[in-house]
Amino acid sequence: xxxxxxxxxxxxxxxxxxxxxxxxxxxxxxxxxxxxxxxxxxxxxxxxxxxxxxxxxxxxxxxxxxxxxxxxxxxxxxxxxxxxxxxxxxxxxxxxxxxxxxxxxxxxxxxxxxxxxxxxxxxxxxxxxxxxxxxxxxxxxxxxxxxxxxxxxxxxxxxxxxxxxxxxxxxxxxxxxxxxxxxxxxxxxxxxxxxxxxxxxxxxxxxxxxxxxxxxxxxxxxxxxxxxxxxxxxxxxxxxxxxxxxxxxxxxxxxxxxxxxxxxxxxxxxxxxxxxxxxxxxxxxxxxxxxxxxxxxxxxxxxxxxxxxxxxxxxxxxxxxxxxxxxxxxxxxxxxxxxxxxxxxxxxxxxxxxxxxxxxxxxxx
Length: 365
Prior knowledge:
cell membrane, exocytosis, membrane, five-stranded mixed sheet, 23 strands, mainly beta, about 10% helix, repeat, Synaptotagmin-like protein 2, disordered N terminus, globular
């Protein structure tokens, strides 16, 4: 894969600006292009890489938590109280640095993962944290809740310490006993989970919609979307301790190379600072409902780029310009950012979002 990234540099205090010009109709015209719905998975090797360490530590101990559905908020609350007698990741000092992570299954990506803070140097961590999911109760009754406990070492690597799974379809929400804190024994993972289920890191970014064009321009009916990629946090290391990451942006359904912009690559850190702003013009108000900002993070090594994780920021409706598309699959957090941007023109809206596995739309020539 040839590398056509910019060779410019930027310090933390400065940021770069790239601008993408397009006619206002280009988004709509591309809605019938076969390239945009043809999805292919990224290199097969990605799926076999684990950022978590499974099976190296014995699974023991238990976790105390409670769940409740708050009808007034339409939210599932998972109260994670504490764990006890966990396995020791540091065998010499007999301690771990554990944290708890939750998912709603089967669609891990849609609702996103939630996690507690890491409690250091203990086998009996106390959290007392509430993890919240905004979800309709009828949908919740089709889900399973997965809680897993992980040790995070100083290099941000994760080791699996055990998990518990609750089937919410058979859960009695009216039973008051079910709202009480209970202890559950931690269990082994039945099958290894690919990187998509583990930590891919996060991206700190800000979006802004500028409806009025720059002075002197015509076409007042269109506007610009500004995407400020600030930094990434806790990126996974796929090549030992080496990492040389950059961020690529495409505005779907336009998968043409013209639509693609990139940051420079930042090496030797899992927390790269990019401070790079990308501008896409030609957005009519109706395009904001149909388009989706796809941001992907890559590790550049020699002549290849390996996918680390990505975001798809849009309304997540599953459709674009009347066509059903796989890529309109934004998580609730990604949708929330896009909604805020649309509702607050000329204002930077900032968020830190978890990176996830994506099936990447093929780039059309």
